[in-house]
Amino acid sequence: MNKEMTPEQFKAERERLKITAKQFGQLLGVSERAVFYYEHGQRKIPKPIQLLVLLYKKTRSRRLAEKDQCRAAHSNALQ
Predict the structure, then answer these.
(1) CA distances from 37 to 16, 40, 43, 61, 72 (A)
(2) Taking the model in full, what pTM does it have?
(3) What is the pLDDT of residue 70?
(4) How far does CA 71 lie from the centroid of its chain?
(5) DSSP assignments along 46-69, one per residue
(6) Distance CA 40, CA 72 (A)
(7) 29: which DSSP letter?
(8) 2-12 residue pLDDT tens
(9) Is 57 exposed, middle or buried (0-12, 13-18, 19+ CB in 10 A)?
(10) pLDDT tens digit sequence for 29-64
(11) Between the CA of residue 28 and those of 24, 37, 63, what are the distances in Å?
(12) How far apart are CA 10 and CA 69, in angstroms?
């Protein structure tokens, strides 16, 4: 990972997951206050936290794609 995650990208990922800052902090192993600092650019987002966010993003996208495939298969079976 060469590019740093921006505060806007960090916040967008939390919002995409539809979770609170407190929940995001629990998921990442940091405090709610740390999430606030990262989202507002008051502290640099540590590389390990950036990697965790990207991992959650990737695995969630994969799970959603698998659900879509299951729905399509089920729909085709009913026709």
Answers:
(1) 19, 5, 5, 26, 42
(2) 0.74
(3) 62
(4) 23
(5) PHHHHHHHHHHHHHHHHHHHHHHH
(6) 40
(7) T
(8) 689 999 999 99
(9) middle
(10) 999 999 999 999 999 999 999 999 999 888 876 665
(11) 6, 14, 19
(12) 28
Cα 30 to Cα 63: distance, rounded to the nearest angstrom: 25
User: Which residues neighbour 21 within 8 Å (Cβ) at sequence distance 6 or greater?
Assistant: 14, 32, 35, 36, 39
Please report, to the nearest 10 degrees, the dihedral formed by the alpha carbons of residues 4, 45, 51, 58 taken in order. Answer: -80
How far apart are alpha carbons 75 and 52 in whole angstroms? 34
Mark 6-36 as b/e (b = at least 16 C-beta within 10 Å): ebebbbebbeeeeeebeebbeebebeeebbe
